Structures are given as C-alpha cells and as structure tokens.
C-alpha cells in the first residue's frame, strides 16, 4: 500500500511563506498522524497545501505521483479535506450536501443518485447523526456542522483524509465518535492526517505526532517520544508534565504559564 511523503514543502499566502521546507516522510497507509502545535504554527496551512488549496512548492508524493501537480479531478479522487468550518449560506440539507460532494468525486461503487443517497445515509449512521440528515446546514449548531463536514469527507471514501481540528466544537461523546471514525477509516488502509489542539487526544489516537512551530517541524515521532513535558513547555510556553495514567494512557498535565510568559 502507498505511503505519503511530504518533501520540502513551502507554502503561504501572498508570497509570505508560513510553512518552511517541511518534510514528513513515510506516512504509512493505515496510519493516523496528528499535527499539533501552538496557534498560528501553520498546521491548517500545511493541510491546505497538501490538499492543493494554497499554492506550495516542494512535493507531496503518493502512489508514484506528485499530488501538487495532479489535475484537480484526480486529486479529488484520492484526497478529502475537512476544513475547520463549513462555508455559511449553503441552503442544503446535510444529506443533500453529502450527495452534492459525491457528484464531484464519488467512489466507484456509487454510480447513481440512489447509491449516493444510500452512501450518505450509511455514513451518517456510522457517525450516529442520521437524525441530522434533513437538517439544513445553516440551522445547525457548531458541533453539528462539524459532524456534517466530517460526513461529507468520509462519504467520498478517500485514500487520504485531511481533518482540520475536527473535534474543536464537539462534546466528549462526539469527540469519541469522530476519532473512532477516523481510526476505523485508517484501519481500511486510508492515510489520516488530523490537526488537533488537544494533546491528550493526539496521544491517545495517533500513531505518530508531528509538532509544528513557526512553520517548521520540531518533532516527528510516536506520541510518547514527541510529546515530552520539556518540549511542550518550550513550544507552548507552559509548564507541563506528561504522565501515564492507570489505563496506560499519556496524560498532559499543564501546571500554568512558563516563567518566561509571566509579565
Ligand atoms: N487566508 C490567509 N491569508 C493570509 N494569512 C493567513 C491566512 N490563513 C492563515 N494565515 C496566516 O498563516 C499563519 C499560520 O496560520 P494557520 O491557520 O496555518 O495556523 P494554525 O497552526 O492552523 O493556527 P490555529 O491553531 O490558530 O488554527 C498565521 O500567521 C496566519 O495569520
């Protein structure tokens, strides 16, 4: 199965680079990678660059091709990107929005409108939100919109799934559902890259954690190696201890602002 390799990626806005020469290699099929880092570190920009939404130099290698140079239609068949927030003013129901997304790039077994509706309902069921199917996107709560955005991305059955802070508006149950769905998709061979602010969530669900700071990779390792108290302290400007709880899970205990941050 194909791995994803990001090579010397530089990207930004109006010629101001935000991501500087980022390389992340061997992102294996079937793996879930968390992208973490402080605000404005460049996490969303990196995802958008991989998705081809912001211009980038360098290369995103997948399946023998450079995704950055693939035609949009071909890239859309491989990759789905869930943005931090859905655009406002879209007068569609959740179900209609998923079906509309499938009309752009549906998996092979979704051939007719009926198949698309069936696929959409099945994704909504898997996320436990089938009751939202007929709800209009514009009338949903922030968390419900986030779940709808995830459903749109999952329905396309991508080989690479890019999730930008998919849990930021969600309660604990829905966080579990979202991370569980991402993990299940990874288990089918998909490559999942997910931006997370919650480091405990990253430690719990990710195989690999990439820590970004000022647009550069400062750690890229399994969670227990990437997320050390000292490193979190320096990068986030807090005092932090990383412990294993009784269940064996990493827990990040933040004690307060680092001395350097206290005015
Ligand atoms: N559309 C845009 N136009 C211009 N600059 C942008 C745009 N989007 C982001 N930036 C800038 O790029 C830098 C990185 O932003 P980005 O959203 O990638 O960071 P992030 O790590 O995802 O942040 P956060 O955790 O706060 O969401 C910031 O300085 C931001 O101001």
Automatic annotation (TrEMBL):
SUPFAM superfamilies: P-loop containing nucleoside triphosphate hydrolases (SSF52540)
Domain ABC transporter: 4-239
SMART domains, per database record: AAA
Gene3D superfamilies: P-loop containing nucleotide triphosphate hydrolases
GO molecular function list: ATP binding; ATP hydrolysis activity
Pfam families: ABC_tran (PF00005)
Coiled-coil annotated spans: none
Domain of life: Bacteria
Stated name of the protein: ABC transporter ATP-binding protein
Family indicated by similarity: Belongs to the ABC transporter superfamily.
């Amino acid at each position: 199965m194909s791995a994803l390799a990001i090579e010397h990626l530089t990207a930004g806005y109006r010629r101001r680079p935000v991501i500087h020469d980022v390389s992340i290699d061997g992102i294996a099929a079937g793996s879930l990678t968390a992208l973490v880092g402080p605000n404005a570190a460049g996490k969303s920009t990196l995802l958008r660059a991989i998705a081809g939404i912001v211009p980038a130099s360098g290369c995103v290698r997948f399946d023998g091709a450079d995704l950055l140079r693939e035609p949009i239609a071909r890239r859309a068949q491989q990759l789905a990107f869930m943005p931090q927030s859905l655009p406002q003013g879209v007068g569609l129901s959740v179900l209609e929005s998923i079906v509309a997304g499938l009309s752009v790039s549906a998996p092979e077994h979704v051939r007719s409108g009926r198949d698309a509706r069936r696929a959409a309902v099945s994704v909504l069921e898997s996320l436990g939100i089938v009751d939202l199917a007929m709800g209009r996107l514009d009338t949903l709560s922030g968390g419900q919109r986030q779940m709808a955005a995830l459903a749109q991305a999952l329905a396309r059955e991508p080989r690479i799934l890019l999730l930008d802070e998919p849990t930021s508006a969600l309660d604990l149950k829905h966080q579990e559902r979202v991370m569980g769905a991402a993990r299940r998709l990874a288990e089918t061979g998909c490559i999942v890259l997910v931006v997370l602010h919650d480091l405990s969530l990253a430690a719990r669900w990710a195989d690999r954690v990439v820590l970004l700071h000022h647009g550069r990779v400062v750690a890229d390792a399994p969670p227990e190696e990437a997320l050390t108290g000292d490193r979190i302290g320096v990068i986030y400007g807090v005092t932090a201890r990383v412990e294993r709880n009784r269940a064996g899970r990493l827990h990040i205990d933040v004690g307060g602002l680092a001395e350097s941050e206290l005015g």
